[in-house]
Amino acid sequence: MEGYRESLLKGSAKVAVWGLGHIGYSTLCHFAEEGVNGIGVDIDEERVKRVNRGEVPIFAMDYWLGFAPGYLFEQGAARATTEWRELISAEVLVHFVAIPTERDGKPYLEILGDVCRKISKIKGLDMERPPLVVIESTLTPNTTDEFVIPIFEEEGLVVGEDILLGCSPRRDWFATPDRSLRTLHRVGGATNAETGEVLLDVLGIVCENMVPAPDHLHAEVVKSIENAYRHMEIALANELSLAYSHLDMRTVLQLVGTKWNVGTYQPSFGIGGYCIPLSSHYVLDGATHPERLGLLRRTVESSEEQPGRVVEYLVNGANAKRVGILGLSYAKNMRVPDQSPTLKMIPLLRERGIEVKVNDPHFTDAEIKEIAGVEAFAFPQGLSAFDTVLVVAGHREYNAVNHATLLDNLEHCRLLMDNTGIWEDVDFEGHGIGYHLAGSPYWLGGAPDLGRSLSSEHGSEPAGGGSDERGKPIGSKAVV
Length: 480
Hints:
Layout: H1 4-10, E1 14-18, H2 22-33, E2 38-41, H3 45-52, H4 61-65, H5 70-74, E3 78-81, E4 92-97, E5 102-103, E6 106-107, H6 110-119, E7 132-135, H7 143-154, E8 164-167, E9 186-190, H8 193-203, E10 210-212, H9 216-243, H10 249-256, H11 276-286, H12 294-317, E11 322-326, H13 341-351, E12 355-359, H14 365-372, E13 388-391, H15 396-399, H16 403-408, E14 415-418, E15 434-437, H17 452-458
Parallel strand pairs: 1-2, 1-4, 2-3, 4-7, 7-8, 9-10, 11-12, 11-13, 13-14, 14-15
Antiparallel strand pairs: 5-6, 8-9
Helix pairs in contact: 6-7, 9-11, 9-12, 11-12, 12-13
């Protein structure tokens, strides 16, 4: 009997993908590009229609994939459906589970449980070999043993005999095509050695750098723990910028990052996205002894406080009244608002009576209103309405505006706070606009009064905490 890999490549079997978000859609496309037929299911009817028309349903996904996937659907190598029963077929040899496992920033398993019960309907099929189920979603440690396997057993399936089960949470960085499913090292592990060999063989059709884990337990926990590590380092970067407010902590951390075994992280307005802030919750929830994870618990607390620190400075340090925020997404060139610092700062600002509006070129005005609860404004001309501007996500559309046009539209701005460094070389201070780059000296205020001589020499108080004769805060770009 031919192996799983051979059956897929010869076309005698296909893959099924549960969920067509970033992970699921890219899985379907990558396997189809390698000649493996596939079908994906999603509850979003409009997304399914777009996929089947050959359109890319996720912003910039064709760029991240490194190829235009439309032809794969046009020629029938892959297709999408809203009918999950179409995936319960003797032709489907591999099921990829790529559904959300969080809700409102916390672990959430209801969708995963529903998918496992639906996959269990294979029990009535006449199949020569048990299908392989690969969980690509990020899981709370021990979810496979304590949640997934019991569901299959309740449905009458024996894992390892009637169904094969492996874990291989995805690591993709959806910002650049050189860090993709194909090129990144991918960890995979299964419930027994035989299944592990099948898992690595199948995933190796696309992935060039498979890394075997001893079993599913070890594979399952890797994604959460590696992101928890990153979470702690980012939180430390933020706290260092507060503890050493007189230093340019961005520069310090860049220098620190030149050591071969140290990562480089920068202070910011807060941590967003699916993975990093959520993974720490996964690790805490799944730990056998969570009371031993005091550092991680403090990391979560400190990170959740960071957007509030920015707001506190805007209210009490900068006396902001009208704030325009650039970026609903949590990161540049993405259409993902999940856990964005913008969403965390808006209610805090509005509670203090500050007017807030948002611009993001990747969302419609109606979407911004629905997601953020505030009105949208046009860029760059709408900037003239604000005394304070925050750059949360450094989208390419913002970078494409020349300096003169940008400054002309900041006529009433007194302070611009930049989370990204996208406008670090703009002469804001020469136009009376305070410029605070996250992590630069006194970027959240607190500059000491260095005396009359320095003020007289520069015509203003030191960078970061003072104001000029017109009441505009002086930026913190210059090192005192």
